[in-house]
Amino acid sequence: MRARIVTLCAAPLALALAGAAPAHPASSLHASHAPQAPHASRSGQGSGHQVHTAANRSGSTARTPARFARVDLVSDVAGRAALTDPELVNPWGLAMGATLWVSNAGTGTATVYTGGAGTARKAPTTVAIPGGTPTGQVAYTGDAFTIKGKAGTAPASFIFSSPSGAITAWSAKADPRSAVIAAFTRGADYKGLALMNTDRGTFLLAPSFSHGALHVFDDDFRRVRLSRRAFRDPFLPAHYSPFNVEIAGTSVVVAYAKRDPATGRPVAGRGNGFVSQFTASGRFVRRLASRGPLNAPWALTLAPAGFGAYAGALLVGNFGDGWINAYNPRTGRYLGPLRGADGRAIAVEGLWDLEPGTAANGGADAVWFSAGISGARHGLLGLIRPAAGAASPRPTSRPAPTTSARPAPSHSHPSGGYGY
Known about the structure:
signal; 5-stranded mixed sheet; TIGR03118 family protein; mainly beta; 4-stranded antiparallel sheet; globular; Methylamine Dehydrogenase, Chain H
């Protein structure tokens, strides 16, 4: 299936999420030149990576040591974690609905987990992903992105990207056991996926590592024709390509890794990475992070409000060395890596995604991680949260007032009462 291409009107897009209030200014990426843009999340209609309200970080807190604890919960290796699941091999993208969905590149499946703090249980749903190994993933609860499967036609609930150039989608009403190929771009190498809600519709953003470009699809899975400058960092050095993309606050954030032109693979190494910020229309705003501790960065998310001293920080996870680096999302200032109780930087071998937890899944103070351990031959899923007794920021002045809290995401869906 070839991707159908449509032309997007040149008028600026604004990120939007119906019924949601803007996040606290400290937890949103500041885009001084962006069009009017309310709130957004990576997945449609309020699911997926969530933007969280955070304590004020513009000088109103005293810096104190931040320590975090890592808990390994699921692995395909017996004895490696509390729960053994042979399907969990080289897990990449994570998407949060009522449950946690995981893209397993090593088995070509998506598996589902539930559980509170420190526990994980596997749900009975396992979905086969055709068209190549799944990498990025988003959750969707709207009525677009319609797919047709063996059981019927319905809006997608989860959408996946693949290095083969396939975009696949799943709905329990279309096919309970398998996703459906919804779009295909020859020669594309899609390493990630984001869902962008705007004032003119919902779009998929897929970074093609091979093309060195961000591809955009409308809610009918048609490729959108972009200007040559759209979603391109004009200052990016040669041999760097978009590795992943995320919606954070009111901005599109892209992580770049160095690409080996001979093999097409990311090149690990300290300093091999950039993170750039764009408007919803694709206009370059600024470079958020350059080189330094970046090492083939892939994971991008805003830390949840309960994440201790780094609440509201932009977390950037390195595939190259497993470090999780924190940045001030307003200024791009480097805050440091997440550190364990011993003061050493937490390093998750083969780190892929980071996903904020919820009260029902992992805890609202935690971040889920996925990793392809043992050279991507095996998998690991776990949690990182503030260590017990770890210091938190102490307010030295009254924090700035926050906006009204974001409503809890709704997981109702046209496919019926199926729990996602």
